[in-house]
Amino acid sequence: MATVNLTREFDEILPVVVADRRHFHEHPELAFEEYETAAYVAERLRELGVEDIKTGVGGTGVTGLIRGERGDGNVVMLRADMDALPILEENAVDYKSQVDGKMHACGHDAHTAMLLGVARILMQHKAEFKGTVKVLFQPAEEVPPGGAQAMIKDGALENPKVDAAIGLHVAADMPAGQIAWKVGPGSAGSDRFRVVIQGRGGHAARPQAAVDPVVIAAQAILALQTLVARETDPMDSAVVSTTAVIAGDAFNVIPDSAEIRGTVRTISTTAREHMAKRLPEIFTGIAQTMGGSADVTYIQGYPSLQNDAAIVEFVRNAAIELTGEDNVIEGKLGLGGEDFSYFSLEVPSCFFNCGTRNEERDIVWGHHHPRFDVEEEGFVNGMAVMATAAMDYLNAM
Ligand SMILES: [Zn+2]
Ligand SMILES: [Zn+2]
Fold first, then answer.
1. Of 68, 85, 1, residue with least CA distance to 394
2. 3-state secondary structure of 86
């Protein structure tokens, strides 16, 4: 049961949140370069009276504390990401990006402004909760290794120790105001590989004098699929895709080497670790058997995001109570990456979606598209759910 219904209050402060969002939208900064954005955030938090403001956490990250006045208790962390993308905006809006080739095309401008809105309202309701809310603004969600990991390494989950985390992402494919929750995995572990197979080049008519890296590559690429078909639990999920094969450029020459690139997507840690171990073994083993060698680079991206059932319940209940059963749906598992996953592996977490689509206003373009935009009316529900879930969680602990 929510402490108070915050929807009306968020409605009232929406103009301030929209102004902040448009400011960020006009002044986008790329991953790990969010200097102006972070300074604006810190200034706003100071103005609101948020305590213990820390800047420069994990690069340009900012954190602050809102202490409930009902006494000691748990600490819940609320997270926003601040980075923009290297995209030239194609929207004709008066808050269009003022920086050529940079654009908030994923909605992180909205996340940052919304979390400032949440902080504003929670500051006015300190008397109604115990424990502490830690607001966290992170750099570089879009570029692995990402800002979440950097902030964790810099101690963002300590002093005070964070017990649970909540984050949200606006969603271009959900109508404004709709809320989607999901228990369990919320995104895929996303890794990449690059392999250089070294053979021995030669005349195409004299293969016996050469070691053909193209034939080695062909064998290895097919064998890779057995990692999914024969070595992954059928009830688990994994995808291995070879997306580039680069070798040779003549009709009559066996090339000296071949390069292979691709991606691995997994849901469970077990499958992820298995792939990271077995993929290099397949390449080196097959190459060796056939007289060549393989140099494998395996690059780990973001891990799979894990939503904790208990924390999701606070979010789901708040959403149903504030926005009505019809506005709340169970989300689907996407295979995109999201570095909130690092927080979700450290503390029980919930990452939920907040719809910002509006077909009437042609706000329908997908994330990372040059015409991406958000229906700002949708912020109210996202903010109200986040703030209410945080308070309810703290009061229940
Ligand atoms: Zn994105
Ligand atoms: Zn994003």
1. 68
2. coil
Report the amino acid identity of residue 119. Answer: A
Find the ligand nearest to 148 CA. 2
Residue 212: C-alpha distances to residues 200, 289, 297, 347 (Å) = 7, 12, 21, 50
C-alpha–C-alpha distance, residues 29 and 25, integer Å: 9
Q: Does the predicted TM-score (pTM) go above 0.85?
A: yes
CA of 39 to the centre of ligand 1 (A): 22
Task: Given CATH 3.40.228.10, say whether it is the number of domain 7-187+304-396.
Answer: no
Q: In CATH terms, is domain 189-300 a member of 3.30.70.360? A: yes
Ligand having the closest approach to the CA of 169: 2
Judged by its nearest atom, the ligand closest to the C-alpha of residue 81 is: 2
- Cite the active site residues: 83, 141
Q: Ligand 2 centroid vs 384 CA: distance in angstroms?
A: 20
Return the domain boundaries, the chain: 7-187+304-396, 189-300
Using a CB cutoff of 5 Å, list residues around ligand 1, an ion. 106
Ligand 1 center to 283 CA (angstroms): 32
For the chain, 397 residues long, give each residue's pLDDT as a single digit of tens.
455 789 999 999 999 999 999 999 999 999 999 999 999 999 999 999 999 999 999 999 999 999 999 999 999 999 999 999 999 999 999 999 999 999 999 999 999 999 999 999 999 999 999 999 999 999 999 998 999 999 999 999 999 999 999 999 999 999 999 999 999 999 999 999 999 999 999 999 999 999 999 999 999 999 999 999 999 999 998 999 999 999 999 999 999 999 999 999 999 989 999 999 999 999 999 999 999 999 999 999 999 999 999 999 999 999 999 999 999 999 987 767 899 999 999 999 999 999 999 999 999 999 999 999 999 999 999 999 999 999 999 999 9
Q: How far is CA 256 from CA 206, 214, 259, 356, in A?
A: 14, 9, 11, 52
Show Cβ contacts of residue 142 under 8 Å, excluding neighbours closer than 6 positions: 31, 83, 85, 106
Distance 349 CA to ligand 2 centre (A): 17
Instruction: Tell how far the Cα of 138 is from the centroid of ligand 2, in angstroms.
Output: 12
